[in-house]
């Protein structure tokens, strides 16, 4: 157990180190002035340039530079946004929670809708329910996310006018930012229109969440269904049937766990796809998240922001992937003997 | 009164274009407190019979039978729930592969406790009930000869040796104190001491608890030691059934004779390095079953009449399905019934 945790921490540490090294070398590869690529500040005078050079240790060896970089990252000195002249750290703090919120809701929706549907159609496979879900999941799987998002906007916002097109909450509601997660912020705030604020926030949330999670949900349904079909023909399910257990007992106690264990790593891989999709959808729905921020930074050739944005997003993906892997590892008794941590 | 009675059970398996008759009018009876052996080569449909009894067949397969009854109740026409209740309490099955018949993701202790029916737990509070379940499962393990229960309770199935798994399967089958125990070749590939232990355990349960055992095996030596009656199966057809002793002494069907001859342990006067007696050819595949008596193409006594399926005939307790039974030189040709 301790050994396993250590191995996963080890994996996390070295992968992070590789990421950090890569992001350290990015500004050297970008076109333009190295100092402004790194700090985001374009020096006006020679004295300013010298001061920046010294603070980034550019006058010393590359190892000192790397050390200084790690120190800056650790201390939150992530440089200045070239366009807005705000500190990148404060911007990331503002935009990242919005993305995490969207990822979380989309994932929860995909898990709590996709897995039960997959299990049901796996048990009653080749029935009407199964054919319906399979057709829908193939359709859902083949939609490009951005296209689906735009269709949603056309239908539900522009034609039917049921839901708002963009943003997280209407400007009318003045919710002070504390955690950055809009739902928690509303709960923490002491405004007297909380329920309306909730309604408004949820109506903003529905379309982006749906358009991201439909693809992931379709993948979940297909994998879970296939795995459930395989498990239900296994000898131990027949043995459980021969002992006269009820169908619910067989499915929940013996079917579910055994069918989910082999596919959890595959599902974990979908998380990174989900995050990528969230970043695209954010741009379409003007959701003030890290994805929209990063894509804007790319348009503006805002190199310091690109560098930090890339690092933050990849750390997010990495941490989520490794923690799901670790969870799978804990759930699966057969992998007790496997010594190595892998992603 | 037979406890379990199967009459003319046929099983059809769809294979793309046509339906294969995997079991052809198999009949079997098991009386209360009897040990019956079901003998046949692998592929002769022993496991299919068991699966038909417990009702764990794929939905596309179709079962046709005159009757499958347990204690007078028709298993085929009762509701799923009733059938489940009977399986829960009265019929228990020990499967062929113990390691694959145990759920790989659940600990042994939980699996044994799950197989104890709720009716056996009579304590009031939840912790007392939990404790009672634990005690029952430990005593079950002791009963099947697992002495150091501490060592195995907390294991997952893949951590156990096969013989312990097999004993656990038997313990779980016995948990509901069934009237019938069906063992599907449960001693295959076991070392002889463990095998003896398990066979002895089954005989003991048969004597003390009046447990009826349907002992499916192709281990003839074990069968002759344990069982009183046996049914021989070839390629999905019942070939011969009766008391073990009379079958051993005077097999009426050529297949039974060939089966007994092929086991060197029964040949007292077998000279060393002599060739074993065996039928020519191999057991046919399901796609290429011969019509009539399925032994036909391999049978040394086969004649023209054998393309018609022989009707089971009975001499005292001894039943056989053959047009030209052995030891009856006076019987000439098939009798009238066949032409009907």
Model description:
The complex is a heterodimer of chains A (343) and B (340). Chain A is an all-alpha fold. Chain A has a domain at 96-289: MetI-like (MetI-like fold). In chain A, 74% of the residues lie in helices and 0% in strands. Chain A contains 13 helices and no strands. In chain A, α11 (247-284) runs parallel beside α12 (290-299). The longest helix of chain A has 39 residues, at 194-232. The mean pLDDT of chain A is 85. With 340 residues, chain B is α/β, with parallel strands linked by helices. Chain B has a domain at 102-177. Helix content of chain B is 31%, strand content 23%. Chain B has helices spanning 46-54, 80-89, 98-101, 108-115, 126-143, 149-153, 162-174, 192-209, 220-226, 244-249, 254-261; strands at 2-15, 18-31, 35-40, 62-64, 67-70, 73-74, 91-94, 180-184, 212-217, 229-234, 237-243, 313-315, 318-320. In chain B, a hairpin with a 2-residue loop joins β10 (229-234) and β11 (237-243). Chain B is globular. Chain B starts with a strand and ends in a 20-residue tail after the last strand. The A-B interface holds A 233-236, 238-246, 249, 253-254, 257-258, 261, 332-334, 336 and B 51, 54-56, 58, 84-89, 91-93, 95, 97, 100-106, 114-115, 156, 158, 169, 172-173, 176.
